[in-house]
Design brief:
The protein folds into two domains: 1-37; 39-194 and 257-276, Jelly Rolls (Sandwich), CATH 2.60.120.1440. The protein contains six helices and 19 strands. The chain has helices at residues 2-37, 198-217, 221-225, 228-240, 257-261, 264-276, and strands at 40-48, 51-55, 60-63, 68-71, 75-78, 83-88, 92-96, 100-104, 112-116, 119-125, 133-136, 140-144, 147-153, 157-164, 166-171, 184-187, 190-195, 243-245, 248-254. A ten-stranded antiparallel β-sheet has the order 4-1-6-7-10-13-14-17-19-18, with helices on one face. A nine-stranded mixed β-sheet has the order 3-2-5-8-9-11-12-15-16, with no helix packed on it. A hairpin with a 3-residue loop joins strand 13 and strand 14 (157-164). Helix 2 runs antiparallel to helix 4 (228-240). The longest helix has 36 residues, at 2-37. The protein is globular and about 45 Å long. The termini are far apart.
Length: 277
């Protein structure tokens, strides 16, 4: 009798252990299968400061790790004084400046596709067969291959500074969804800005000018040495240089080399590109 009870308990214990092992194996298989079906976008090669990745499966923001794989439909967010570098394939580099949030879209046929609402992005895409990066902002879409360029955007304007190669920019129509039937080709050494609401943009530039004056009045030597009158004239002439185009306004100028030398963001990216080569 005792043996029967003992055997029954032993059998129940074996069944319980078997059920647990089966559940664990099924869970591992299920999670692995889900991840294997995800489309890899690239990997985070250099997270500096507070860089977060939105895990779409868990729907929570998690701190980015070095060489962390990122996947289609995930988001990367940088907080204040933070930066991030993402490598796509073997020839494409995307760097994200502070206070930015980007969506990683489907890298179909070796292409990378980004969507950015506001912030600063630096792209270095070396020539490669069938490899290019498309970047969507609230005002336009750009397509590049074998290009180095810097993108600064808000919900109202997009500015492209091209350091090598060329960039094709297609603005959105007034609905913000449909693309215009005309594109702008921006070449090496050129800066191109497309604005959706020009009156709003002028107010934004006035704010930039006011912040500049505050810094100058604060007594910093670097701002004392700069010619504020020249800066004022530059901003005024820049606004006058805009041309009207269907759904907005645009301006094409040369890259401001002096401003680049004073930009830590530009200098850092150029050094990273040099080290990469």
């Amino acid at each position: 009798m005792r043996n029967r009870k003992h055997n029954r308990k032993k059998n129940n214990c074996c069944l319980t252990q078997f059920s647990i092992y089966t559940l664990i194996l099924f869970t591992i298989f299920f999670v692995t299968k889900l991840r294997s079906e995800d489309i890899s976008f690239g990997k985070v090669t250099l997270p500096l400061g507070q860089v977060l990745v939105l895990d779409t499966a868990k729907e929570v923001w998690q701190k980015a790790r070095v060489n962390q794989q990122v996947f289609k439909d995930e988001k990367i967010k940088t907080l204040s004084k933070s930066r991030c570098e993402v490598k796509i394939g073997t020839t494409q580099i995307v760097r994200i400046g502070e206070n930015a949030e980007i969506l990683l879209a489907d890298p179909t046929d070796g292409d990378g596709s980004l969507s950015i609402e506001s912030g600063h992005v630096w792209l270095n895409v070396k020539p490669g067969k069938g490899q290019k990066v498309r970047v969507r902002t609230p005002t336009a879409v750009s397509a590049i291959r074998g290009t180095i360029y810097r993108l600064d955007c808000t919900d109202n304007h997009s500015t492209y500074n091209v350091y090598d190669g060329s960039v094709d920019v297609i603005p959105f129509k007034d609905d913000g969804i449909t693309l215009e039937d005309t594109s702008f080709s921006i070449n090496k050494g050129e800066s191109f800005t497309f604005v959706k609401d020009f009156e709003k943009y002028k107010k934004e530039q006035q704010t930039v000018l006011q912040e500049y004056r505050k810094k100058q009045e604060s007594g910093f030597e670097q701002f004392k040495q700069q010619q504020s009158e020249g800066f004022d004239d530059f901003k005024a002439n820049q606004l006058k240089g805009f041309e009207e185009y269907k759904s907005g306004h645009f301006i094409r100028t040369k890259i401001d080399a002096q401003a680049d030398t004073q930009s830590d963001w530009v200098r850092w990216n150029q050094q990273r590109d040099t080290d990469r080569d």
